[in-house]
């Protein structure tokens, strides 16, 4: 039986997209993993800044000989903090690239689908095969994945933008807030979907 060209075109677009998702998911997870120690370092630094603020340097006899010590220490700590923030910014940029790459590829899949939707027929769209979920299911899964990356990126961007050196308590709470985002999301959404299309991708 000769393959239906419109069906083949949509399947190829889907296959290409899922393979890209698989690749981008690796980058996403790696970037998130890299953020954990950076956030811990930032929280520790905020704790040190808080502790330094509670010290009255002028009342500590050995420190009176260094009247600018408090200011120099603060500048050094803030410089270290800015270095960590730069590294976190790089990781956030990686998450943005993943989100954009997936969104762009999903958009291309739907463009291909729209081109051929009228000639595919309802059975081709709704009917799964032995090795392939239905086109309708796979298109819906891609929308879920695209939404997943978009929402998770925005939550982390918002958390990152809330960092202010004037609010040390908030910085100290960052690791917990970051973990909470991870706990709130469906961790296995992408991996479960890739598992559902594993036979399809081998075709």
Blueprint (SSEs and pairs):
Elements (H helix, E strand, L loop, with lengths): L4 H49 L15 H52 L1 H5 L8 H27 L6 H5 L1 H11 L4 H8 L1 H5 L1
Explain what you see.
The protein is mainly α and 203 residues long. It has eight helices and no strands.
Radius of gyration, taken over Cα atoms and rounded to an integer in Å:
25 Å
* Secondary structure tally: strands: 0
| Strand residue content | under 5%
* Largest sheet composition: none
What's the overall average pLDDT, rounded?
A: 89
Broad structural category: mainly alpha
**What level of helicity do the residues show?**
over 70%
Instruction: Indicate the low-confidence ranges by residue numbers.
Output: none
In DSSP terms (H or I, runs of 4 or more residues), the helix count works out at 8
Shape: rod-shaped
* H and E string: HHHHHHHH
The termini sit apart by 16 Å
In short:
The protein has 203 residues and is mainly α. Helices cover 80% and strands 0% of the residues.
Task: Output the keywords.
8 helices, 203 residues, single chain, mainly alpha
